Please model this.
Amino acid sequence: MQTRYLIPVIAITIFVSFFRLGSVTLFDVDEAVFAEAAKEMVESGNWITPTYNGENRYDKPILFYWLMAASYKVFGINEFAARFPSAIASLLLVLSVFFFVKQFRVEKDAFFAAISLVLSIYFLAYSRAAVTDMTMTLFITISIFSFFLSVNKKRYYIYGFYLFSALACLTKGLIGIVFPFCIAAIYILTAEGLSGIKKIFSLKGIILFLIIAAPWYIAEYIINGEDFIRQFFIKHHFKRYTGVISGHKGPVYYFIPVLIIGLFPWIAFLPAGIRNVFKEKDRLSSFAFIWFASIFIFFSLSTTKLPNYLLPAIPAASILIASGMTVQNKKWRQYSNLFMAIMSVLIGVIFLISKRYLSKFGIPDTDWTLAITATMMVIAIISFYSVFTKKKLHGFMAGLMVAFLLLLVTKGLPIANRYLQGTLYKYSLYAKERLHDDEKIITYRINNPSIIFYSGHKIINVGDKDELITFMKKNNHAVAITKITDVEVLKELGFNLLGKDEKYAILERK
Model:
């Protein structure tokens, strides 16, 4: 069936996800470590156990590495290829949200759900990142959609529930099982009580799940045994939830500011959408609320917290936001627009003030912050206008968000990349020229996987001076990269300074 909104949805999503996708180098730590692991998979031909720096990497299951490695085979080993799986997953995610909402509501609501998802910082960040999160979110989302369709449309959709849950399990681990099944169980219990719980289970579906998900886990256990169980399940699943991994700790309210920033400006309509859940008792809104609240509460109670943890809840939030954008209650519409206006002013002021501080951090090009400030002020003016006239101006907001994201992609992102990664990229290429094929780079008290990816050399990650002394007794020639604060330690051991900036230094001992 033809649809008037489909072309704009596809066009905007392609712009946000693919425009200048490979224009900046990989960011440390996550992007670079996934890209390097997939690179080693292609080079070694080991398609079962991912490795990083030549050692087994158990952080995530295999599917995303396969997707990235396949992208390398097609496009070559580069930044575009590393990010391509996430960009494709983001396009499919938006289309799935659009067509799913269209099954239960008018097409305009489906358009609002898709646009509020795409035109956000959350989507911009993860649709263009060489990490598992967007792919995992796609599979979890389609799995949850399939369950809802199996209950409210045709029973055979239950096989999609198990199929995509299995793919999510192969992408991120147990989360791929926990979220779809818990959300389905909570929804069916609230909608139909215990008598409806049987609708979740299907023997054929379970067999389908095991056929897809189990072989890799079994193969990995056969090959690596208890080490796989200890690292993959205990460390990266249970300890990540109950303890702090890599210093990523946050308070219980951590995800509230993350949501406000990540879903700006559309977050202003989320309260109205949640109100509709209890006011109108719509099946789809109730389902979306259970989905969103389950993930939000789950990770709010987790000890380890990162912004990407909440990504599987964002499609549900977009459905609720779309409901809030079409709310008929004028007071709630005014509240939403007023909140949007205030937030726009605050963000505009922050970018205006940042101009002064960015130059102090060695970032000379700051004029783009004025353009963002101007964009935010226009959004604020339109929002205030909507408060007093009670008119819906969502189209203008969408256009301004396109301009805002365009500024981030063309100006903000490259500048941030040069500041964070520029020196390391240059040093990595220098080390690549100076070292023989069998030599390794010393990284002293830093963890930057991009060095391995761009230098083509393995690293020796040294954590203290004694460990460095032990290594140098066996090696005369070495190139080391470290923070500027540790340069003197390496100089004492015969290293000569080759280059430095405000953060990093490269040294060599012959």
Observations:
- The mean pLDDT is 91.
- The CA atoms of residues 476 and 510 lie 6 Å apart.
- The beta strands are 51-52, 55-56, 441-444, 459-462, 478-483, 496-500, 504-509.
- The first helix runs from residue 6 to 18.
